[in-house]
Write a structure and sequence with these properties.
48% of the residues lie in helices and 10% in strands. The chain is of the alpha/beta class. It folds into 2 domains: 47 residues, no CATH class; 272 residues, Nicotinate-nucleotide-dimethylbenzimidazole phosphoribosyltransferase (CobT), large domain (Rossmann fold, 3-Layer(aba) Sandwich), CATH 3.40.50. The chain has a 6-stranded parallel beta sheet, with helices on both faces. Helix 6 packs across helix 11 and helix 11 runs parallel beside helix 12. 55% of the residues are buried. Bound molecules: alpha-ribazole-5'-phosphate (RBZ) and nicotinic acid. Nicotinic acid binds next to helix 11. Pathway: Nucleoside biosynthesis; alpha-ribazole biosynthesis; alpha-ribazole from 5,6-dimethylbenzimidazole: step 1/2.
């Protein structure tokens, strides 16, 4: 078994002054422990993006209309979204899966697109449950199938990201419900909500979580379904299946971490296979990561989603893996035979 002590012993035996690579060594330890190997691998790697819309956008919680979800999906498929250019820059494949966009991109669809819509957006979570039990299962299953596909293709590192206007509202609900963050901490500006939208968003999140919380102990799926989104549940299913299949999960920002909270709640132990790439500028992200026992690699004030924070951290993962795997032993350098 590779525990932290074993990984540190290996790093301290390499041809360098002990701990001279600073935080890179801590990342190498995490990678070795997650993968249970002293020679961790970070290739091949895959990004699976899930897209969905949110009925609660009608209440004015986002600075953007739901139609932007579909427009960005088309931009992702054209290779011109932040996620797509960063994935290409770092040798990461990309797939986009529609689990419930209101206006999906027009056909013909490329091979790296999959259309499995659960519904044309969730119901408005401020008025009732965001989704039914059957819809929850459909989204969870779609996510799990994608993780199985990515693992089946031999990917060592899995990233999942999202596109869904309004989705920082369900993410805030889940962070409050599952990580115990107060509404004030959990609600941030997302993609640029102004002060008026923030007032609405805080009220809606507070009320929705108050309604869901009493159900959490006896009916966690029901409580989660009340306040989640299709792309978030799909990401949760992706994490659970990816972890069960032994993949390394590189965790993106606030919305992805809300999905990680769902996965850990329903499939305990999933977070043990996760490496948190960054802490988002969304104020609740730190609380969500702490609840999962994860330390972020970067704190760069990113707040985009689409898997971008994870993609930016990928070269650091490559660096950490290369060091612990390939650097010579100091003993061999000092006493060549
Ligand atoms: C052009 C554009 C591209 C994006 N890519 C990711 N998001 C991110 O912002 C949205 C969540 O923020 P909120 O809850 O405030 O709507 C999601 O679509 C998320 O993926 C984007 C947002 C926009 C506007
Ligand atoms: O951190 C995130 O995942 C995030 C932040 C703002 C908007 N969308 C996503």
């Amino acid at each position: 078994m590779i525990d932290e002590a074993a990984a540190w012993a290996r790093l301290d035996a390499l041809a360098k002054p002990p701990r001279s690579l600073g935080e890179l060594e801590a990342l190498a330890v995490r990678l070795a422990v997650v993968q249970q190997r002293i020679d961790p691998v970070t290739r091949p790697r895959a990004l699976t993006l899930f897209a969905g819309d949110h009925g609660v956008v009608a209440q004015g919680v986002s600075a953007w209309p739901s139609a932007v979800t579909g427009l960005m999906m088309a931009t992702i498929l054209a290779g011109q979204a932040s996620s797509a250019v960063l994935a290409a820059a770092h040798g990461c494949t990309l797939r986009l899966v529609d689990v419930g966009a209101v206006t999906p991109p027009p056909q013909p669809w490329p091979d790296h697109y999959r259309s499995v819509p659960v519904a044309a957006g969730t119901a408005d979570l401020s008025q009732g449950a965001a989704m039914t039990a059957a819809q929850f299962e459909a989204a969870w299953t779609a996510g799990g199938a994608e993780a199985a596909l990515a693992v089946g293709l031999g990917n060592a590192v899995l990233i999942t990201g999202e596109m869904g206007i309004g989705n920082t509202t369900p993410a805030a609900c889940l962070t409050s419900l599952l990580a115990g963050a107060s509404t004030d901490i959990a609600v941030g500006r997302g993609a640029g909500a102004d002060d008026a939208a923030m007032v609405i968003k805080r009220r809606i999140v507070g009320e929705a979580v108050d309604r869901a919380r009493p159900r959490l102990a006896d009916d966690p799926r029901g409580a989660i379904s009340a306040v989640a989104g299709f792309e978030i549940v799909a990401m949760a299913g992706f994490f659970a299946a990816g972890a069960a299949a032994g993949a390394t999960l590189l965790l993106d920002g606030y919305v992805a971490t809300a999905a990680a909270l769902v996965a850990e709640r329903l499939a305990p132990g999933t977070a043990r296979r996760m490496i948190a790439a960054h802490r988002s500028a969304e104020p609740g992200h730190g609380a969500a990561l702490a609840h999962l026992g994860l330390e972020p690699v970067l704190d760069w004030q990113m707040r985009l989603g689409e898997g971008t924070g994870a993609l930016v951290a990928l070269p650091l993962l490559d660096s950490a893996a290369a060091v612990i795997r390939d650097v010579a032993l100091l003993a061999d350098v000092l006493a060549p035979q």
